[in-house]
Structure formats: structure tokens, C-alpha cells
Design goal:
- 2 copies of one chain form a homodimer.
- Chain A has about 425 residues and is of the alpha/beta class.
- Chain A folds into 2 domains: about 1-225 and about 385-405, Aldehyde Dehydrogenase, Chain A, domain 1 (3-Layer(aba) Sandwich), CATH 3.40.605.10; about 225-375, 3-Layer(aba) Sandwich (Aldehyde Dehydrogenase, Chain A, domain 2), CATH 3.40.309.10.
- Chain A has 15 helices and 16 strands.
- The first copy, chain A, has helices at about 1-20, 25-40, 40-55, 60-70, 70-85, 125-135, 150-165, 185-190, 205-215, 235-250, 270-280, 290-295, 325-335, 345-355, 370-375; strands spanning about 95-100, 105-115, 115-120, 140-145, 175, 200, 225-230, 260-265, 285-290, 300, 315-320, 340, 360-365, 380-385, 390-395, 400-410.
- In chain A, the strands form 4 sheets. The first copy, chain A, has a 7-stranded parallel beta sheet. Chain A has a 4-stranded parallel beta sheet with strand order 5-4-3-6. Chain A has a 3-stranded antiparallel beta sheet with strand order 1-2-16, with no helix packed on it.
- In chain A, α14 links the parallel β12 and β13.
- In chain A, α2 packs across α7 (about 150-165), α3 (about 40-55) packs antiparallel against α7 (about 150-165) and α5 runs parallel beside α6 (about 125-135).
- The termini of chain A are far apart.
- At the A-B interface, α10, α14, β13 and β16 of A face α10, α14, β13 and β16 of B.
- β13 of chain A pairs parallel with β16 (about 400-410) of chain B.
Chain lengths: ~425, ~425
């Protein structure tokens, strides 16, 4: 892996340059990158056409091909996203805490870039520009590994970004595609903790398992979402229907869509027939526990359904005796991503918020809001299902760590 | 490993109880634990005598035996530490950030316990009480694995703490020693990410390497410290001597002691003879680079010296051309633990603080201050050499993560 050792050494060297690059320059360079993407439109679209041709030849599904496609509008959106990231408040240098010790040392806890960040992702070529921009904005070096189906588009986009780095006398290694995308190369890279500071895998279960099992570098996972909506006995029907339909149907393939609806058995007889009607109109396939199937005529759910991330317009429904059973079910089957309760009862709302162990816990709102853009982070590197470092949507702040800067005037320890 | 699966399941169940235990009760229980340690003094000292007997039979060094020894005074210190931890501000429930989105969702980022925390450590039995208390204070479940030389003392201490849990109707699994301390058991445990949320290894390089390579659970390492003191051209001699002697000599076996002194070649002729005299008086063995040896008569340093953590009263000295060479040396050989500059020059101080990539960067103060107690954290689980989650001294705040609690009134995503 000698060719990759040099590649990582260059990345580490670039990280030292990036860590002292003023925020104003980082923003200015990002705006130039946005312009360059538009100026080099023809080259990028030509590369994308090559990917599209290969995708069709390989028989990729229509949905996959659509995700892969770039056009004028999508390139403009990509450029706009870069400008938005450039305009965010600089996450580097924030003083997170500070105090003076009994010895008179002034301690400041200051946000600093993480260093070299590897991101592994799939299909959409705009992720290449987004992730590169988020890492650059936060003073990090980005090592990107996209899917092989988008290799021509990703290479063209990275080349444009690197040309801007070069024109600004900045190391091109600050934004680089991993030159060897083989499984062996990835497996080797995630063990190079001397050069790599963080690895973010976004993708299927197999990828995440592979990275987690092989990495010695810290991993922030963007894993699956098995999310629930719990309809409490104190729920208002209209809110229930609006939130449930949105959380399932608005984009069933997203990780923040719900998979299971838990409903209090005391209101189930009144709510279930109306909910069935609404879900039928939305084209949702329903599966229910035994008690649910006794109320409405739907397919029975098996035990495996409670752990399933459908990624499609399918919903499992389970009746529960109350909030304790609902929370126990969530802790047993959920993936600690996004969980919601619908209720008008204040105590139940607070109990749910406090007891449920998940990145995002909602009262009377759709789980679909778990998203860097919706949270106001500008954009996101991913949605962390880790408990440590970053949890939930990861924006530029989550791409920083901290150090302690300590000012003394000759203090020594007694 | 079936006996350990049940053990971890109980730990996870206890974590759900701990996560909603009010801070006031956590503090009260800790104060009771402090009292119980004193009340059960005889039992603990008897168990410790057993460890001491085995240690002597096994021919452990005098230093090791002293670390292992408990007596009335040390037990009282242990109890006092528990009361101090009880008195700390509750780290759980702090609202770290909060805002309202364009959709009118109120988002609060709230500190919550991490969950189940495994800590692997060596020798000193007081670590058992300290770490258990820090985890308990922060609402976590502690799984403790101490060294086998302290097994009787650790078992006795844990039993006392558990008796207080039991008397308070709290799950005894909230503070537990790993029932099987074999390498196989540890290797298995660090892969149980379903039950374990964090593992903190504190100890020798072999342990840390073993845990890092085998863990799928997130690891916060307490690794070695190769720390430097850089004597800038603008340094004042008196401060240099005071800080240098303290940073090396006050406790050479600590990870925050310095291993290498870097000195600007322009002031070296004036400073080195005086520093040699001071270090000779302190009994420090000096090794120097070629240029240093041309100024003072000391042993020559080899290339390997620059990467060495001596853990003894030995210091390597290297002359550098200026701040760039000093920082490059630190980045090449340092372990990103604690780094210091002595200077009267403001610009040099700021440059060093900003450019050096380490957990703690000091101006005109000893690196020996990198310590939870000295930082005002009360006590510490360890000193993290990770870049992520926690960096530097880890107190109770660093034993929390966060979740987003989101208040809506029926919002759905457009």
C-alpha cells in the first residue's frame, strides 16, 4: 500500500496547513469553488454522461440512475450549497469554555479542526462537493471515497475543486479522492490512525459493518434508522394522522422515516380505522400485531418486522398497554436514531423526551426533521447513529474537536 | 461467553434506570458510599493485606507494592474523593444549545449519560472507587476491570459500593467488576457494541494496542505522553529553569511530564550550561543532540530518543533553529498530549498555541498541570489522547453525550 502511504502523508501535511488557514480565506475559496463548478459545467456533465452510459449498460434501476444524474439545475444547486456552506459561521476558533484555575492559569477550550477526515459514501455525485465543502469550511482535509458508479462524475468534481486549491497556493491534498477504491485499500486505510483522524461511513449495512470491524481510526457511523411513532392515549387524532402520514410517506427511503407505529390500546379502537383509511389513500402497506389485526383487516406482522428498516412505503403497527411498553419496545428494537410521541399530555411528553435513548426525540412532530438542513446546520456530512463525538445530524461544528490553550506566567505544579 | 452476555444485559438494563435517576439522588448515594467505605474499613484493609501478601510473594517491586497499599489515610482520601465528586455540579441535563427552527420546532441539545462505560486500569485500588463514582455521578453504569494484583482490594471496594446500591433499591449492576478478567473475555467484551457504549483503557502500550485493534465499541484511549518544552529565543531564563525542572522532575513517571526539551540555538549557549547545572542537582540524566553535546558534556541522544516516553528522570535535549523546526519536531514525535513554550514574545506564544496540535498547549507553565484535579474537574477517569469525543483530562462532563429534544405542535416536513 505504498502509493497510499504517500497519499495519507500528504493529507496529514495538508491538515497542518488547513488548521491555520483563516476562516475568511476558507470561505472565499469555497465561493471560488462554487463559481468554478459552474464554469467547468461542460466537463462535469460530460463525465456524468459517461457514468450514466455505464449505469445503463450495467442495468442500474431507474431510481439509481436518477440519483446519479447531473444536469444544469443540479449543478446550480451544488454551487448554491457551496455558497451556503461558505456563509456559515466559522466553527473553528470558537471558545467553548474558559476559566482561571486556583493557580492562576487561564484555560481556554477552543474548537479546532479534527484533521484528516475520510468519508465513504454512495451514488449521488453532489455528496462529493457537499462533503468536501463541509470539511474545508471546518479546516479539515477530506479524503473521499464515492461509489464506483459515480467515479467519472466524482473525479471531475474533485478536479475542479483541486484546481481552485492550486490557484490559491493551497495543497491539493486538502480535498482528494481515495486513489484506490478496492476493499483492501479501504480496509487498510481505516487502520492508519497515524494519518487519519476520523472515518465516516455512509451506506449499506455491509459497508458499515466492514468499516466498524476493521477500523482502529475512530468511526462515526451513519447507520440505519428504525424509528417509531408512539401514539399516546392523550393524542389528538388530527395531529396523529398528519404526523404519522408525513413520517412514513413523505420519503419512505430516508433513514428518518418511521418503520413502526406504536398505539395505546385504549385509543386504538377509535384511531385505527381512520388511520387505516388515511394510509390506504397514501398507498402504504400495513402490517399489524395480533391485537391490531383484530381491529383492522391488514397483513399480520412477524417478530422480524419490529427490527426491519423497510426503506419503502410499508408500516408495522403494534398496540401497547402504555408508555412503559412503548419505551421498552423502542429500546429493544429501535436504532437510537429518531423517535416521536404524539400527545396532548405534558407529563407523558416530558417522560418520553427524558427516557427515550435516541439521537433525536420528538413531541408532536414528524421524525423526518432529523436532517442537517432542517436543523439549520446548512448541510450535513451525515446523521450519526454513534453515541460519542457527534449524535444526530453532523454539520460543520461536528467536524471540529477541541484543544485546551493554557496561559501561564511561570506556574509549576506543587 | 454466555455468563458475560447476561452480565452485559444487566448492565444495559441498569443504564436505563440510571439515566432517569435524579442528580440529587445520585449525589446522596455517593455520600452514603463514602460513609460505607469508612464503615467497612476493616474488610477492605483485610482484602488489601491479601493482595499485598500475594504481591510480595510474586516479587513485585517496592514502587508497585506502594501503589497497591491501602491504609487508614488512603481510605479516608478515597472517601473524601467520593464526597467531592458528589458535590460537583450535575453534568446530566445541562442544556448545551437550543434554538427554534423556521418551522417553529424548539430544539434543545441536552447532556445525557453515555450509558454503559467499561474502564480497564491497573494497580491503584483507589481508581476503582474514583471511576465508579465518576460514572455514577454522570448517570452511567460502570464496568470495571482492574489489575489482577489488586483483585482482592477491588472486589472488597466494589462490594461495599454495591451494598449501598442495594440499600437504595438501585440495580447492583450499575457498578460492577468484570467477572472474568481474561484476555479472551476483554477481547470479547470490547466487541459487544449492543451493550457497551464506551471503553476507556488506561495502562501500558500493549493493553491499549490490544483494545484498539479488537474493539468495535468506541474507545477513548489514555495513551502515552511524549511531551515537549520549547524554549523560545524570547524566553526568560528563570521561568525556563523553573518550568523545565518542574515539568521533568516533579513526577517523572507521569504521562504529563516532559521527555524532550527543545531549545532555540541562539540562546542555547547562554542557557544550556545553567540548565545542565540545575538538572544535575535534580538528578536528571541528560541526553543531547550533536549541537547540544558541543555545548555541554552529556550523553549523546540517538534518533530513537525523540520518540521515547522515559517514565523516569531522563531528558533529551535538542537544539532547533526556531519555532518552525520546534513545531515540526513536536508534530513528528509528540503524542498530542501536552506541549509547552517558554517565551516573553506575544506573537510566538500565540503562534505556538494555535499551530501545535495537542490536547493541552501551554505558554509559560508546566505540562504537569494536565490533570482533571488541576483543571478543576474534581477527579478524572483518565487523560484522553483521542482527538474525538474527549481530549485531555476527562471528568464527569466528558462522561456525558447529548441528545436533541424537539418540541413541536404538529409540524410535518414539506
Amino acid at each position: 500500500m505504498e502509493h497510499l502511504t504517500d497519499f495519507l502523508k500528504n493529507a496529514k501535511a495538508a491538515a497542518h496547513v488547513m488548521s491555520v488557514l483563516p476562516g475568511k480565506r476558507r470561505s472565499a475559496v469555497l465561493n471560488e469553488m462554487a463559481q468554478a463548478l459552474l464554469a467547468q459545467k461542460e466537463t462535469i456533465l460530460k463525465a456524468n454522461a459517461e457514468d450514466m452510459k455505464n449505469a445503463e449498460a450495467a442495468g442500474l434501476s431507474e431510481a439509481m440512475c436518477d440519483r446519479l444524474l447531473l444536469n444544469d439545475k443540479r449543478l446550480e444547486e451544488m454551487a448554491t450549497a457551496l455558497c451556503e456552506i461558505a456563509a456559515l459561521r466559522d466553527p473553528v476558533g470558537r471558545v467553548l469554555d474558559g476559566w482561571v484555575t486556583d493557580d492562576g492559569l487561564k484555560i481556554e477550550k477552543v474548537a479546532v479542526p479534527i484533521g484528516v477526515v475520510g468519508v465513504i459514501y454512495e451514488s449521488r455525485p453532489n455528496v462529493t462537493a457537499d462533503v468536501a465543502a463541509l470539511c474545508f469550511k471546518s479546516g479539515n482535509v477530506a479524503i473521499l471515497k464515492g461509489g464506483k458508479e459515480a467515479i467519472c462524475s466524482n473525479t471531475a468534481i474533485a478536479a475542479v475543486l483541486q484546481s481552485v486549491l492550486k490557484a490559491n497556493d493551497l495543497p491539493e491534498a486538502a480535498i482528494a479522492l481515495l486513489p484506490d477504491g478496492s476493499r483492501e485499500a479501504v480496509g487498510w486505510m481505516v487502520q492508519q490512525d497515524r494519518y487519519l483522524d476520523l472515518i465516516v461511513p455512509r451506506g449499506g449495512e455491509a459497508l458499515i459493518k466492514f468499516v466498524s470491524e476493521n477500523a482502529t481510526v475512530p468511526v462515526v457511523k451513519h447507520d440505519k434508522g428504525v424509528c417509531h411513532l408512539y401514539v399516546h392515549i392523550g393524542a389528538d387524532y388530527k395531529t396523529t394522522e398528519r404526523v404519522a402520514i408525513n413520517a412514513k410517506v413523505q420519503r419512505p427511503s430516508a433513514c428518518n422515516a418511521i418503520e413502526t407505529l406504536l398505539i395505546d390500546e385504549k385509543i386504538a379502537p377509535a384511531f385505527l380505522p381512520r388511520l387505516k383509511k388515511a394510509f390506504d389513500e397514501a398507498g402504504t402497506k400495513l402490517r399489524g400485531c395480533e391485537k391490531t389485526c383484530a381491529q383492522i383487516v391488514i397483513d399480520p406482522a412477524s417478530e422480524a418486522d419490529w427490527d426491519e428498516e423497510y426503506l419503502s412505503n410499508t408500516l408495522a403497527i403494534k398496540m401497547v398497554a402504555g408508555i412503559d411498553e412503548a419505551i421498552a419496545h423502542i429500546h429493544r428494537h429501535g436504532s437510537s436514531h429518531s423517535e416521536a410521541i404524539v400527545t396532548t399530555n405534558h407529563a407523558a411528553a416530558e417522560q418520553f423526551l427524558n427516557r427515550v435513548d435516541a439521537a433525536c426525540v420528538y413531541v408532536n412532530a414528524s421524525t423526518r426533521f432529523t436532517d442537517g438542513g432542517q436543523f439549520g446546520f446548512g448541510a450535513e456530512v451525515g446523521i450519526s447513529t454513534n453515541k460519542l463525538h457527534a449524535r444526530g445530524p453532523m454539520g460543520v461544528s461536528e467536524l471540529t474537536t477541541y484543544k485546551f490553550q493554557i496561559y501561564g506566567d511561570g506556574q509549576v505544579r506543587k
